[in-house]
Specification:
alpha/beta, Rossmann fold, 400 residues, 2 domains, 15 helices, binds NADPH dihydro-nicotinamide-adenine-dinucleotide phosphate
Length: 400
């Protein structure tokens, strides 16, 4: 029998919801590129329920306990005295969501001799030391595509919020003002701007598609070029590297995974190559940007705005400078955990668990690390290495 250790974010401060604003979720047949939706034998929850918090348990308890397995669910994930570290040594499987990541560092992996499978309930497994996972024979799997469209919607929302100066204008309403000039002195139209994405994978391409009707000029860079018919359909300009892209774009949205090649990609040097007054949106991973360099670029006016939902570490310490820097539109890491997305990645998590427990292969598109190296989707989008350095700082959230 297996022990499954599942780290989820806390319930709402007012308690687990008794009701929801809507009664159902729209039905989908498949993902936009035809990929199959998650196909577990059963789901164990009602789509539309809050599944990503500790009381939601990703809908897994009845399924696992009915087969004699042990499920431990906790939000207490950081530091040596955390429930996560106490429960880890005899766990076979760890499940974690990027929104509230259980950092699976080499040290922690070394303390977990039974650990065989790390599931990311969502997308983006950079909270796992992928190099150590490979060396220790772990399988790392994530629910590819489950929340890609959710993130693309958030990115477009934040692009519009920055360019049109939405958040400060909304604040004037809350403050009982009617200060039109204060709102409009930083507000522009998106129309005719040059908008670029760094990486045109599932999310990046969805952002390009959603921006196209705004009559903007679209740009992208990626390690692999998109098919010609997509470039022509969206009238895309391809850039062989990120430097070339940022020099011409008014809006840049980041959509690559965090891995050694992309860590701190947006540093002082790259930010200095952007157009003065550009907007930078990052819903990929906080560490792709140099924390202090972003603050400097906003303070100097090199960037007109920065928004996103990803931070490092997570939860962000209360004194994290991105909470207070000028002209930002940050949210906590929420874009990929709408109730709609939760239903998909909870079902995908169960599909992965069913496969693993029944000794059936996990879908190739869900695999990040397997059999001692990057595999499946991971072999395509990641590079070998570790990006969890500095994750210890997450303990500061509770301490400050
Ligand atoms: P995909 O795997 O579909 O796309 C990733 C793309 O990044 C691929 O096209 C890949 O290129 C490209 N890429 C990798 N490295 C580089 C590089 N050095 N330079 C340029 N492009 C690069 O994943 P998704 O689009 O679904 O997700 C992307 C990332 O978004 C996730 O890894 C995660 O970090 C983040 N995310 C954030 C969420 C949130 O809630 N904020 C939720 C979901 C994801 P190629 O494969 O062509 O080599």
């Amino acid at each position: 029998m297996a022990k499954i250790l599942c780290v989820l974010y806390d319930d709402p401060v007012d308690g687990y919801p008794q009701s929801y604003p809507r009664d159902d979720l729209p039905q989908m047949e498949h993902y936009p590129d035809g990929q199959r939706l998650p196909t577990p034998k059963d789901i164990g929850f009602r789509p539309g329920e809050l599944l990503g918090s500790v009381s939601g348990e990703l809908g897994l308890r009845q399924f696992l306990e009915s087969q004699g397995h042990t499920l431990v669910v906790t939000s207490d994930k950081d530091g040596p005295d955390s429930t996560f570290e106490r429960e880890l040594p005899d766990s076979d499987v760890v499940i974690s969501q990027p929104f509230w990541p259980a950092y699976l560092t080499a040290d922690r992996i070394a303390k977990a001799p039974n650990l065989k499978l790390a599931i990311t309930a969502g997308i983006g497994s950079d909270h796992v030391d992928l190099e150590a996972a490979a060396e220790n024979g772990l399988t790392v799997a994530e629910v590819t595509y489950s929340n890609s469209i959710s993130v693309s919607e958030h990115a477009v929302m934040q692009i519009l919020a920055l360019v049109r100066n939405y958040l400060p204008s909304y604040q004037w309403v809350l403050d009982q003002g009617w200060h039109i000039a204060d709102c409009s002195q930083r507000a522009y139209d998106l129309e005719a701007m040059h908008c670029g994405v760094v990486a045109a994978g599932r999310i990046g391409l969805a952002v390009l598609r959603r921006l196209a009707p705004f009559d903007v000029h679209l740009h992208y860079t990626d390690r692999h070029r998109l098919p010609t018919e997509i470039e022509e359909e969206l009238n895309l300009t391809y850039h062989p590297d990120v430097e070339s892209l940022v020099q011409v774009c008014d809006v840049v949205s980041i959509h690559c995974p965090l891995h050694p090649e992309t860590e701190h990609m947006f540093n002082d040097t790259l930010l200095g190559k952007m157009k003065r007054g550009a907007y930078l949106i990052n819903t990929a991973r906080g560490k792709i940007c140099d924390r202090e360099a972003i603050v400097r670029a906003l303070e100097s006016g090199q960037l007109a705005g920065y928004a996103g939902d990803v931070w490092f570490p997570q939860p962000a310490p209360k004194d994290h400078p991105w909470r207070t820097m000028p002209h930002h539109g940050m949210t906590p890491h929420t874009s990929g955990t709408t109730l709609s997305a939760q239903a998909r990645y909870a079902a995908g998590t169960r599909e992965i668990l069913e496969c693993w427990l029944e000794d059936r292969p996990i879908r190739d598109e869900y695999l990040i690390v397997d059999q001692g190296g990057l595999a499946g989707a991971g072999a395509h989008a990641y590079s070998t290495g570790n990006t969890t350095g500095g994750a210890d700082e997450a303990t500061k959230f509770g301490a400050t």
